[in-house]
Structures are given as C-alpha cells and as structure tokens.
Amino acid sequence: MIRPLLRLGHCQLRQPAQTVTEFNTPELNNLIIDLKDTMKANGGVGIAAPQIGVQLCAIVIGFKSSDRYPHAKPISETVLINPSYQALGDETYEDWEGCLSMKKLRGLVRRHVQIKYSGFTVTGEKIEETVSGFHAKLIQHEVDHLNGTLLIERIPDLKFFGFEDEMQALMQQTGTRLS
Ligand code: NI
User: Fold this and answer.
1) Is the pTM higher than 0.90?
2) Looking at residue 179, what is its pLDDT?
3) Alpha-carbon dihedral sign for residues 94, 96, 100, 105
4) Is residue 77 flagged as an active site residue?
5) What pLDDT score was predicted for residue 115?
6) Structural domain tally of the chain?
7) 131: CA distance to ligand 1 center in Å?
8) Which of 77, 97, 128, 142 is catalytic?
9) CATH code, 70
10) Within a domain: residue 131?
11) Residues with C-beta atoms within 5 A of ion ligand 1
12) Distance of CA 48 from the midpoint of ligand 1 (Å)
C-alpha cells in the first residue's frame, strides 16, 4: 500500500528507530511491501521506515532508472533490516542529494566514498557488502534516517541547499568533488 510520506519538520523524522527483533512476521512483511510501494510511487531510489511513520530499523533501496538521479547506475532492489555500515578509508566526496521527505530540494552532501554495510533480510539472513559511490551514498542516507538524521546536517556549506529548479546552473557547475 502506498503510504503518505512524512515531510521535513515532522517530529518522527527526528526520532531514532528501534531495532527489529522478530523477522518474517506479517507486520514486517507488510511494512516492506508498503515501503516498496511508496518508494516506487514517488520515483524514489531508497526509503526508510520512519519516512512513512514507522519507527523500525528497515530500509529499501534499488531502482532500474531514476528521473530523480538520471546519471545513477541501477541498483538491485535490496531490503535491509537493522542495517549498519563502516567507512572504508578516509576518502569522502560531495554530490547533490535529495530526499522523498523534502521533494524538490537538493543539497551538496558530503559522504564516504566506500563503505562496508551489513544488515538482515526480511527472513533474518545476514547480508554484508562493500559498495562505493552512489550505492554507498544511498546506504548512508537511509541509515541516517534510522538515527533521526537528515541530509541537511551533512551539507558542509548551506549555500548549496535549495530548490532544484532554482539551482540548475549551480548544480551543473558543481559536479562531484572528491577530497
Ligand atoms: Ni531520505
């Protein structure tokens, strides 16, 4: 079922989510269906449970192609319960990022280039993977949601935050910046 998205300013987006302790329950399976439906209906590339008002550590990522991120390479659909990650190396980069909880806004966000993440499938099997670039950024963004953190806190210079249609020129000038 497509659920309403909570938007920037809603207090639940700022609350930490709880660890899932029971896998493969009807509630958890329904939550994942709702997350997928809501993400797809909104053209998203990732979504976290708190964005539909459920304070549980569950995220879904994945897309074939995205109007929101036309240059991003496809990522296979992945459900992650209780996800976490660690950065591999010190390298970070800045790139334009949006969020379904603040549609039409974009910010130049700093993220780790490469991470190793882990989590569980909906039936409780462990997943572990090393990813980089957009895939790594997506995991970092969604895990932030589970801690009540939004992309705004990851923008080093708030001059690079605003409405997408007002920032076309700026977004073209300011590509991916490695550091
Ligand atoms: Ni988001």
Assistant:
1) yes
2) 46
3) positive
4) no
5) 98
6) 1
7) 19
8) 142
9) 3.90.45.10
10) yes
11) 99
12) 7
Residue 53 structural domain: 11-174
Residue at 158 is within a domain:
yes
Cα gap 25→31, rounded to integer Å:
10
Q: Cα of 47 to ligand 1 centre, how many Å?
A: 6
The residue assigned the tokens 């008002």 is 53
Question: What is the full per-residue pLDDT of the chain (179 aa) written as tens digits?
Answer: 999 999 999 999 999 999 999 999 999 999 999 999 999 999 999 999 999 999 999 999 999 998 888 888 999 999 999 999 999 999 999 999 999 999 999 999 999 999 999 999 999 999 999 999 999 999 999 999 999 999 999 999 999 999 999 998 888 887 655 54
Domain assignment present for residue 6? The answer is: no
Q: Tell me the helices (H) and strands (E) count for the chain, helix number first.
A: 3, 9
Encoded amino acid at 150, one letter: L
Q: What's the rounded Cα separation, in Å, for the pair 91 and 66?
A: 26
Task: For residue 110, report the distance from its CA to the centre of ligand 1, in Å.
Answer: 15
Bridge partners, residue 120, by sequence: 81, 126
Distance of CA 101 from the midpoint of ligand 1 (Å): 6
